[in-house]
Write a structure and sequence with these properties.
Rossmann fold, 24% strand, single chain
């Protein structure tokens, strides 16, 4: 169940009324019926906030990612940062990155801060709504960064079919699937990752080898796959990663065409 709660007093605020209509259209009933939690989406004048409760007592209240967090991310951005190192390598920044598992968009924001144009595909309508809202709020502070991020609501496999036709061919495809087998480590996960797990439905969870294979077919230069540090190395379309960049608790496997 998804409950949209209006948290503003000026009912003549037409842009917010339009936002409410858009949210109702995005959060379709067939999606809401698959959720095993009571979702509350709070609509403020300047942002969306997310709250939810589950039957097992697990839940969150008033979650959102402040746009001011971009100031902190901007200070940390450099070529030696694991994500940037894996995506950029020693190449130029003016490239297109296709993020097929966008989530709330934190990785996309870092890539856009570095200078990449990022197409963010997210199939979960609830997470997509939060992603789009965050990009809009970032635009008030960093218009150039927001303009380099393009959120898309849709299935990643279906979107890949558009590459080369209605969508430009990306130099790099990035995938950050939900890591399998971590459901019991809630205290060790960041809050936004716990939320993504708990509002995901069906095949939103886990790695999809066929998706990674199709990404390899579509990328112009390389595919970067985020995996747990100790996970086995995957062979994709007969290829092993040419390099690995290690972060804290995870690594980035780099596959080249």
């Amino acid at each position: 169940m998804i409950e949209i709660i209006e948290k503003y007093s000026n009912t003549s605020y037409t842009s917010l009324n339009t936002r409410l209509d858009n949210l109702q259209a995005i959060l379709k009933k067939d999606f809401a019926g698959k959720l095993n939690a009571h979702i509350r989406l709070y609509v403020f004048k300047d942002r969306l906030e997310l709250g939810f409760d589950k039957s097992d007592g697990f839940g969150f209240k008033d979650f959102y990612i402040p746009e001011h967090r971009v100031f902190l991310l901007k200070k940390q951005i450099c070529r030696t940062q694991p994500l940037i190192k894996a995506i950029a390598g020693k190449g130029h920044r003016n490239k297109i990155v296709l993020d097929l598992t966008a989530g709330f968009g934190l990785d996309a924001i870092q890539l856009a801060l570095f200078g990449f144009s990022v197409i963010c595909v997210e199939k979960n309508p609830l997470i997509y709504s939060m992603l789009r809202d965050l990009v809009a709020r970032i635009g008030v502070l960093f218009m150039d960064v927001a303009l380099r991020i393009r959120p898309i609501l849709g299935d990643s496999k279906e979107f890949l079919d558009l590459v080369g036709h209605k969508v430009p061919v990306p130099e790099i495809v990035y995938l950050d699937p939900l890591f399998p087998g971590h459901e019991k480590r809630k205290t060790a996960q960041k809050k936004y990752m716990q939320i993504i797990r708990n509002v995901s439905v069906g095949d939103d969870q886990g790695e999809d080898i066929s998706l990674i294979q199709r990404a390899m077919d579509r990328a112009k230069e390389k595919v970067v796959l985020k995996r747990p540090t100790r996970a086995e190395v995957l062979e994709i379309n007969g290829k092993l990663p040419i390099s690995q960049v290690h972060g804290r608790g995870h690594r980035f496997d780099v596959y080249v065409k």
